[in-house]
Amino acid sequence: MSATDCTSCRRSSNDPAPNLSVTRMTSIVPELTAALAAGRYNASALTEAYLDAIRATNSSVNCYVTVTEEHARAGAADADDRIASGTAGPMTGVPIAVKDLFCTREIRTACGSKMLDNFVAPYDATAVARLKAAGMVLLGKTNMDEFAMGSSNENSFYGPVPNPWDATKVAGGSSGGSAAAVAAGLAPVALGTDTGGSIRQPAALCGISGLKPTYGRVSRFGMVAYASSLDQAGVFGRSVEDIAPILEVIAGFDPQDSTSVDTPVECYAKGLTHAPEKLRIGVPSEFFGEGLDPSVEATVREAIATLESLGGEICEINLPRTALAIPAYYIIAPAECSSNLSRFDGVRYGYRASEAKNLDALYQRSRAEGFGAEVKRRIMVGTYALSAGYYDAYYLKAQKVRRLIAEDFQRALETVDVIVGPTSPTVAFDLGERTDDPVSMYLSDIYTISVNLAGLPALSIPAGFAHGLPVGLQLIGNFFAESTLLRAAHQFQQATDWHSYRPPGVEDVLPHEEGSP
Hints:
Layout: H1 7-10, E1 23-24, H2 29-38, H3 43-61, E2 64-67, H4 69-85, E3 95-99, H5 126-133, E4 137-142, E5 162-163, E6 166-170, H6 176-183, E7 189-194, H7 200-206, E8 209-212, E9 232-237, H8 240-250, H9 268-271, E10 280-284, H10 294-309, E11 313-317, H11 325-340, H12 359-370, H13 373-386, H14 391-413, E12 418-422, H15 438-442, H16 449-454, E13 458-466, E14 469-476, H17 482-495, E15 501-502
Parallel strand pairs: 3-4, 3-7, 10-11, 10-12
Antiparallel strand pairs: 1-15, 2-4, 5-6, 7-9, 8-9, 8-13, 12-14, 13-14
Helix pairs in contact: 3-4, 11-13, 11-14
């Protein structure tokens, strides 16, 4: 692909609705790092500007459940000392938000649940520790579907997260708080987790970029587990220029995580500017069938045409077991959730029911009162699938299907470099529209779930608009091929400007530069 300027790609039929006022903004992390390094403003001033914006706006966006003002100011002061002493790294002083299932020392980690509303972790998750070691400044913990179970961020004990583009729509889930924080300009970048699409789907619905790395690329130590064989930490940003340097910080082997893979971390940010390569781009026919909104399909098809105009070779491919991903996932993930969440019993930590008459009553009441409806639903499904007489019929069979899905991807990736398609079958839907229809909600992740079952990296980037709301393009790569995905996405974003659109009223959060009035 060539990153030559493609003027025809910049204005097209999928522009936002004419009456929708939008702001254009470029990637922000390169701007912040350059300004901090040049001394145009310091980390403390930048942090205060973000804290001011959060205080002014978070009540309507509801993307933060905990704002860590004291920790942020201390981190910013430390960053300023590093910059002054010449010991700063590339990301020193850059603010970041973190999904509220990453353990953070001395800060509440609630996982969107009443069960952990009073839980303060005694240690940092590895990803958080690496952010701090790099000198990044933690602004706060973001809202999420309870224990990462949901596709709309409506399953949170702390209330739903509205979409910054339209407050009557969902932000997506489960990492909706992180996606909304970046889209609303309340954090330049944010961490999320992706079990079945929980980074890519909200990124698509909120009109930003979101990366789910290869399983094992980023440590899961200190991430409160939903489904251990599927969960993966990743990054939200406006563009891949924002995401790449953060991935460099958090990626890498961790001896505290048995699923962490000891593979060298590439220079993802510098790799964005490597010489363009001709990519073979696979387009699965299964991603363009029943259930895909025609306007979303048209937008995605146009984005694929843009990739072709940049030198990509488009190849029709097949992923024949795609339709089996939803049923396989909703056996495997609930089974693992049933096991992982058994630790929340009202005895050791977390919510504890009052006035229970005996131990059994304590267990039953603590879990009944502490968990929300969707978490209970998945625990029940998972417990049933693992029970005597049903393990072979359900869980074992689902794992066999998982292997077949992974083999489909591997066969495809022998002939193509990147697989592309829609991230979500629709744009953001109405708040409350699917809360009483779990199956309809689960189908929101039809194009993302199979990637987690296969353990592959995938990225969602803004591709245009349908019905006046953002549409995401998903790029899927082979194991540890994050650099290929980021480079392909960067070339697309150099030739188009969909990633520069911002919701109405959202402006850059930047302090006054030194010497300015």
